[in-house]
Specification:
alpha/beta; FAD/NAD(P)-binding domain; 6 helices; 23% helix
Amino acid sequence: MVDLAVIGAGPAGITAAIYALRAGLSVAVCEKNVYGGQTSIIENIENYPGIEKISGFDFAEILFNQAKNFGAKFIFDEVNKVDLKSEIKKISFKNREPLETKTVVIANGLKRRLLGCKGEKEFAGRGVSYCATCDGAFFKDKKVAVVGGGNTALEDALYLANICSEVTLIVRKDHFRAENFLVNTVKNKENINICFESRIEEIIGDKKVEKIRVASQDSPETKDIDGVFIAIGYEPDNEIYRGQIEMTESGYFVADESCKTSAEGVYVAGDCRIKPFRQIATAVSDGAVAGSNASSFVISGSVK
Ligand SMILES: Cc1cc2nc3c(=O)[nH]c(=O)nc-3n(C[C@H](O)[C@H](O)[C@H](O)COP(=O)(O)OP(=O)(O)OC[C@H]3O[C@@H](n4cnc5c(N)ncnc54)[C@H](O)[C@@H]3O)c2cc1C
């Protein structure tokens, strides 16, 4: 049994672990993918106070080493079931024995929103990608499409325009939802074609992506394309907690600045909870509060 189980090794989860470890708790951090969470795919972070510029990869590495050096035990496996109602809580995993814990900090971030068109799932990893910085280099001098109209889609389009021969930006609305300087840079980039009021109906290919069928206000068309980058945002991934912790209709955990949930001894931190602004700075802020409150809960002897 541990004092605290943290679910998610992103900035929020690792910060919660650091605060709890420094208060003397035993802490297990459970991660289904790579440590660092979303930060591991950020090309450069330039808005985190105290660090002028750092790659997401290096930032994730520092976070991980800091928690490890304080004594965090990392469990690399997916949490697929939880029992949070009893005094001693149980965390179950896909591939290993369950873990018992006195407190829990859920810091599981968000999951990528899927496009939902025909061919998306079949060609994931075979031409369909959700991360331009991770996969862009595979499409050198090729033709790609980027789907989305927000900051991430425009950043992806610009990043890919420097690698690929042609980038088609497919936007559902008749305008972008992005910062002005990005919009202007995209509009002035010669090898980016913008298709407003358009959506991909089908991704077509044999072993890998070869074409997309695009529906638009003009006539629907089939385009030859080698890769499709989907950048239409993120959504909560909190279904396994339903019925045990209060959530909003759209699936975010309900918790105020104290990060306390409706379940005693269970805290939430970072992008997974209801909040107005989702960034690394706000995730680590939550992590500090959640880790500190979990520590007080254990130290006060609330669990025998
Ligand atoms: C492309 C991109 C660029 C960004 N750029 C910036 C930026 O420049 N500056 C900035 O401040 N913010 C930026 N952000 C936002 C920032 O990365 C997030 O706000 C921050 O990472 C949230 O931290 P978190 O710990 O709440 O969640 P996450 O970073 O999402 O971490 C959650 C972790 O939980 C794990 N997890 C989920 N479910 C389970 C499970 N069932 N079992 C085990 N583990 C699980 C996930 O694998 C993940 O590692 C960017 C985000 C993206 C996608």
